[in-house]
Amino acid sequence: MFFTWLRSPISKGELSPVVGEAELREPALPGRTPYARCDQVASYGDEAAVAAMVVPLATLEQQTQLLPSRSVGADKLAVGHIVTEFDLLGLESEWRSLEPRMNQVPFVSFDWLIPWWQHFGTRKMGVRDELSVLTFRSRSGELLGIAPLVITHRPSFGPLRFRQLQFFGADPNITELRGLAVALEYSDSVYSALLDHLKKFPGRFNTVSLTGLPYGNARLEEGINTTFALNVWSPDSVNPVVLLKPTWEEYKSSLSRNMKESLRKCYNAPKRDGLSFEFTVVSRAADVEEALAAFFDLHRARSEMPDAVYHRNYFSSSQSQRFLSEVCARYAKRGTLRIFQIKSNDAVIATRIGFVVGDSLYLYYSGYDPAYQQYSVMTTVVAE
Fold this sequence. Notes:
The chain is of the alpha+beta class. The chain is 30% helix and 25% strand.
């Protein structure tokens, strides 16, 4: 069995370190949020120096107090197997109850992964995805973790199929981080139980590609290295966060001189040229369709800029647009969607999508009108 694992810096209820800490495997680049996916590193964000620096979180002390590390023997966890969408949807209530204790990113939430399966799950002659979701419960029946797994068959049927087990999220970088939906204080125990469970089915998959191994867990790494015949360790996944100060002024005073200058420029340059910008936040479900139409146009426009760092248009397909539209509608319905916009003469010229997850704001993809590049409009979006 071939095995790949992408490790994560988040473990034992701790938040990933602030950009620039030595533990990060990839350097923090000005204006970009680095992520490592499988064997390649991609950078996202815009040129603005602060654009990738603001991901609000509760204080580290608050988080670690809420999520003390706990250990449950892997053999004491009951593993369930879900193979139908009906049964997967039946987890909604328990899944939502688990979310406040999970990693604070949208990509392991019920409202992200259910639409992902419905929009990206493939059922064709050449490729077929088969649900193989695992649940992990305590002896009392409490749900502690979910492994949203899928078996991809190539071709769909026949004796010569190639079968790959992987997490939901095999898409063109729309799902930025993939892994378990697990209460962070039990992450080590659930990962151990996942490995133990996979050992029982050595012939069911040709390859296993998993992500999110709790950072720095030597015991789990050794278990992987000794269990599987061939291992490929991909670069660590980096999820930078910034712990915000109580006020904007305190936060701004802590920035470097260059970043302060970028902030001054984004406000002063438009005024100098007689322009007036308006900042708005879209959060109501009724306004999502119009806001996303502007986002898709501006995201495409940014990707087509000839004299700038290349940014792919991740939402060029109708499939990806329908998926994001459903996710945003779900988040809006629960009051946790934020689509930030800068307008000039009532036209949206810059936008960025944000998801409120617990005490965090996850800043997702963005786009802007190239005609306003000189005004650092993405810096303005994030600063506001």
